[in-house]
Specification:
Layout: H1 8-15, H2 24-30, H3 32-35, H4 40-61, H5 77-83, H6 101-126
């Protein structure tokens, strides 16, 4: 039976083209409301709750009474950037990382192939005994 199969969810997905396997990260990125991140207020609440739950779980794992302190402070963008080490209007995007050299190489290869085929066609048209008009 499919219930006894350890890979049943993946097999079921593979057998029906309408179904697609998604990692938990992909699922929650597409369904932010389920994870509690569908608006700013709920996101803040969910983040704080998760941090507190993780602290409590860690304290429970090493049988120690937890000491959890939560401080929520609104920061300006400038102050936040200073705290994380971004000064001024630093451009942190390395444009060279987005250069698609593989596609450029493929395009050059295709163009070279077209050029060679065009030359070959011209030579075939000029060959003696060729009755084609071109």
């Amino acid at each position: 039976s499919e219930l006894g199969n350890a890979h049943s969810s993946r097999n079921a997905v593979g057998s029906d083209p309408r179904l697609k396997f998604k990692s938990p990260a992909e699922f929650f990125a597409e369904n932010k409301n389920i994870a509690g991140f569908d608006n700013a207020g709920k996101s803040l609440y969910t983040t704080i709750r998760e941090l507190v739950e993780n602290a409590l779980d860690a304290a429970e794992a090493v049988p120690v009474l937890p000491e959890v302190e939560v401080k929520v402070e609104q920061l300006s963008e400038e102050r936040f950037n200073a705290m994380v080490g971004i000064s001024g209007r630093a451009n942190r995007v390395d444009v060279s990382l987005y250069k698609d050299t593989a596609a450029e190489a493929e395009a050059a290869k295709r163009m070279e192939g077209k050029r060679k085929r065009a030359l070959k066609s011209k030579k075939a048209l000029r060959a003696p005994g060729n009755t084609k008009e071109g």
